[in-house]
Amino acid sequence: MSDNYDVIVIGAGHNGLVCANILAKKNRKVLICEAREKCGGLLEESITNFVPQIPLSVSSSLGGLTVKYKAKSSIALSESGQHIRLVGNQHIDHKVISGFSSKDADRYVEFHDKMSSFSKALGSFMMASPPRIMNNTFSDYFKLFKLGMNVRMLGKKKFNEFARMVGLNIADELEDNFENTLLQGLIAHDAVLGSNLGPRSPGSLINLLFRMATHDNSIFGGIYEIDGGSKAFVDTLLDISNKNKVEIKTSSSVKRCITENDKAVGVELHNGEKIYAKKIISNADPRSTYFSLLGTENLDTDVKRRIKHHRSKGKVAKLSLSLNKQPEFINCDKDDLESRMVIAPSIDYIEEAFNPSKFDKLSMEPILEMKLKNSDQSNPALDIQVQYASYGAQEGWDNIKDNYVDAVIKLIEKYAPDIQSCIETKAIVTPDDIEKNFHVTGGHWHHGEIQIDQLFMLRPIPGASQYRTHLDGLYMCGAGTHPGGGLTGIPGRNAAQAILEDA
Amino acid sequence: MNRDLRFTALKKTPFHSRTSLASRTNKYYNWNGFTVPTEYSTTELEYTAARNGTSVMDLTPMCKYMINGSDANRFVDYLVTRDLSQMEDNTVAYIIWCNEDGKVMDDGTIFKFSNTKFMLCCAVKIYNWLHDSAEGFDVSCEDATDTTAALAIQGPTSCSTLKNYGADDLELLKPFGMKQYNINGYDVLISRTGFTGDLGYELWTDPANAENMWDSIMEAGKELKIRPFGMHALEMTRIEAGFIQTNTDFMAAEDSLRPVRMRSPYEIGMGWLVHLNKESYFVGKRALKKEKETGNSERCLVGLDIDGDKPAVGSVIYNEKKEDIGIVTAAMWSPTMKRNVALASLKRPYGIKIKENIFAEIYHPEELEYKKIWAKCKVVKRQFFSPERRNKVPADLYE
Fold first, then answer.
1. Which DSSP symbol is given to B350?
2. Which of helix, strand or coil describes residue A71?
3. What is the residue-wise DSSP string for B292-311?
4. Which residues pair with A40 in a beta bridge?
5. Which of A297, A309, A310 has the most B C-beta neighbours within 10 Å, making it the best mutation to test the interface with B?
6. A221 in helix, strand or coil?
7. Which of A263, A301, A325, B48 has the greatest count of CB atoms below 10 A from its CB?
8. Phi and psi at residue A191, in whole multiples of 5°?
9. CA-CA distance, A63 to A10, in Å (whole number)?
């Protein structure tokens, strides 16, 4: 029998690292088992280009983080060169939009204010662990009451508006407000980003509110790039882990949870090693946690059903192009190239790209979010997030990968005609690759759709919404738990709190 | 206009050509999508045959599922609350199963052929439940309701009847045992099981053999007081035996709209079928363990011995302060035991700690007027009728 630990964390993704360090700071002896050779999970390969800032509540519970962020503006690219550039500051954005339509500019400010107040109402709820109604405890009811109050305090008119908008699709709301299709496309892009929704899918609006709640309650503000790349972020977390004496075992894939008297007491690695601890925390996605770690034979049928119905089909691929020179984007200056560049020229364009993905097929004209790296150096690179690159595509990723990459590049060519001649190498990571390489079921960013049936106390599944699984002693701290992914560290922090509460 | 009823009409069982000939009343009812007789002649006569001769009942509408696969043994053990890990081949076990909240979904019998082959018999359709529960187990579940004809042969002379039919050495079959026969050139599985609380057997075969089986058995029992019996007579025998019926004595968890109507095994007297010390997990174990530990079961299902001779059908049960403490779920005047008996669902501690001084309010119809009777009840063992011959090996034989 190996050393005994207080806590074993399965998976060294950022949430796992956050959770482990908070516990280690409270004098728990913590071990992290990571299946891959490197730590950081999806963060390590920069699967997402842009991130929100780690909230103060998380960084302070880690004793402060030294990560530096660079704020990013957004640019919606247009084939005609009439791009829209937004920074998240209402006055500047108003001026920019009024260059296209003064009506849109005024409406934008109103729309933003409304959305912002709604996302603030959700905000406090986002940070804390969600209530569990079946518990019948005062604090759970109080939490729910507080959310209700937050929303009700918006006033009767806004409350009605909130109720109207919660189930709405983003396209209807945007078309009611704006006439410029490029602006519509940009906002719709952010609403569906990382999800399995089109702009006309019901529920796409709440997706945007959720995103705003972690991005400073702003639509285009609060979008950052980590200084030094995500590697810098991982290194910071690893430094802290070192200081807190968190032990990390890499290349140690966990096979299953060891149980005694229906309680989790340790883990068994694939190499047969058994390690014991008082508590086990899974940073893995809900399906892996339940079906692999806990094991189907230890689950009630109803729980199996919920996990089977848990929606986690990834829709975003990451294409990395290394370049020998900087491509010429039509009508883009240096600042524009530093921005978050989005190719989603209209709602209809996005919906067309979404259509085939309903049938697990691929659109050859997907929507893109791009980041140009090292633009002032000799080895620039273009990181592209390609949305509606369906998990388990019917065409078969192996057959179609090359054609698909070519199609994406051809699409970029419309905005940067010389892109072909700049490319040195290309590498794509599809949702299937994410599943295989990072052990995330479905290769989903958020370990599960952010939709009304998988939010708050329903996330990831009813009965497991407060970071505790159905097995005593086994917890979850990954993006599959409330409030979801997006590099906030909140699930990790909340899970650590749940464990401290139970101790 | 004649509507095409091919897809909506009730199905006929493979015995229908025989049961319909035997029916003098033409009274049928819908059992699980099949049309079967409620009674053939008179319920009293059929009941009497069941207790004194041989009674024959068409069981085909019972839900039957075949469970095959290398994990079949583990799967069945996971599905039900009872510990079946030590179950022997060619035996049958009475079982219940629960949902995740530890509420009973149904009861039934499980037939074990081998570690890789089982048959499950029950009242409520559960194909989806089996299929979804099987996730992670190497098993296949198949609905065999339409492809298996089943006949219950019950009563003191049932063993002799079946021996005449061709089931050699049947008297040596133990209760809850089963044996494969080849009779008249076809395979018949005979199990010593039943729903009457008496000596009795159930026969399982391919539908193609059904008519021959019926005819041969009727011929074999000619001198042994054989008689087909319907649902009403079965209801009488099962109450006497103290057997519970899903959606009569308790609501199946999946069928109850109100969560408060669902019952745990402890609340319907089935605690003895819950093996919490079973090594592996089973569906509902966590919830049942909690209920057992906290002792927060709210109700119980008990037998009542009621004063007088008026059946307490649907009666409300009261304590001495006339507070409502439960309801009768099934009641009858037992002709065999000359006792007024009932099954009742009571609010604890009534039925568990308090067994005396409880009363049934009986409304007895007398030629368009109701007589209200306030009858004293005593909580007794639910098994009202259990004759020695029921479990005797070798079984009694008659000529």
1. B
2. strand
3. HHHT---EEEEEEEESSSS-
4. A13
5. A297
6. coil
7. A301
8. -70, -35
9. 23
- Look up the CATH number of domain A4-68+227-311+447-502: 3.50.50.60
- ipTM, interface predicted TM-score of the complex: 0.86
Q: How many CB atoms lie within 10 A of CB B7?
A: 5
| B258-to-A137, A203, B255, B285, B320 alpha-carbon distances in Å | 22, 30, 9, 22, 29
Confidence of residue B3 (pLDDT cuts 50, 70, 90): low
Please tell me the distance from the alpha carbon of residue B194 to that of residue B177, in angstroms, as a whole number. 12
How many Å apart are CA A469 and CA B150, to the nearest integer?
Answer: 44
Among B99, B132, B281, select the one facing A298 at the smallest CB separation. B281
* Predicted TM-score (pTM) of this structure: 0.89
pLDDT at residue number A401: 95
End-to-end CA distance of chain B: 56
- Across the beta sheet with B104-114, the strand order is B91-98, B104-114, B117-122, B63-68, B140-143
Q: Which H helix or E strand runs over B141?
A: strand B140-143
The residue ranges of DSSP E strands in A201-253, in sequence order, are 224-226, 247-249
CATH second-level architecture of B11-62+147-241? 2-Layer Sandwich (3.30)
Which residues from B are below 8 Å from A302, CB to CB? 99-100
Q: What are phi and psi of A211, to 5 degrees?
A: -65, -45
Task: Look at A295 and B136 and tell me if their CB atoms are within 8 Å.
Answer: yes
Distance, CA of B143 to CA of A213 (rounded, Å): 50
Q: Could you give the residue range(s) of every CATH 2.40.30.110 domain in chain B? A: 298-380
Phi, psi (deg, nearest 5) at residue A186 = -65, -45
For residue A454, the Cα-to-chain-centroid distance in whole angstroms is: 14
Minimal Cα–Cα distance from A418 to chain B, Å?
A: 53
Bridge partners of residue A373, in order along the sequence:
A381
CA distance B255 to B269: 20
Give chain A positions within 8 Å (CB) of B283: 300-301
Structure tokens given for A178: 């704006």
Asked if B194 reaches chain A (Cβ–Cβ under 8 Å), the answer is no
What chain A residue is nearest to B129 in terms of C-alpha separation?
A: A301
CATH 1.10.287.130 assigned to domain B298-380? The reply is no
3-state secondary structure A399-448: HHHHHHHHHHHHHHHCCCCCHHHHEEEEEEECHHHHHHHHCCHHHCCCCC
Backbone angle region of A320, left / alpha / beta, with phi > 0 → left and psi within -120 to 50 → alpha: beta
Task: Provide the residue-wise pLDDT of chain A in tens; the chain has 503 residues.
Answer: 455 899 999 999 999 999 999 999 999 999 999 999 999 888 877 788 898 888 888 999 998 888 899 999 999 999 999 999 999 998 999 999 999 999 999 999 999 999 999 999 888 777 778 877 666 677 777 777 877 788 888 888 888 898 888 889 999 999 999 999 999 999 999 999 999 999 999 989 999 998 998 898 999 988 999 888 888 899 999 999 999 999 999 999 999 999 998 899 999 999 999 999 999 999 999 999 999 999 999 999 999 999 999 999 999 999 999 999 999 999 999 999 999 999 999 999 999 999 999 999 999 999 999 999 887 788 899 999 999 999 999 999 999 999 999 999 999 999 999 999 999 999 999 999 999 999 999 999 899 998 888 888 888 998 888 899 999 999 999 999 988 888 889 999 999 999 999 87
Query: What phi, psi does A368 have (nearest 5°)?
Result: -125, 145
Is the pLDDT at B4 greater than 90? The verdict is: no
* Whether A298 and B133 lie within 8 Å, measured CB to CB: no
Outline which parts of chain B fall under CATH 3.30.1360.120: 11-62+147-241
Q: Which two tokens stand for residue B161?
A: 């009847």
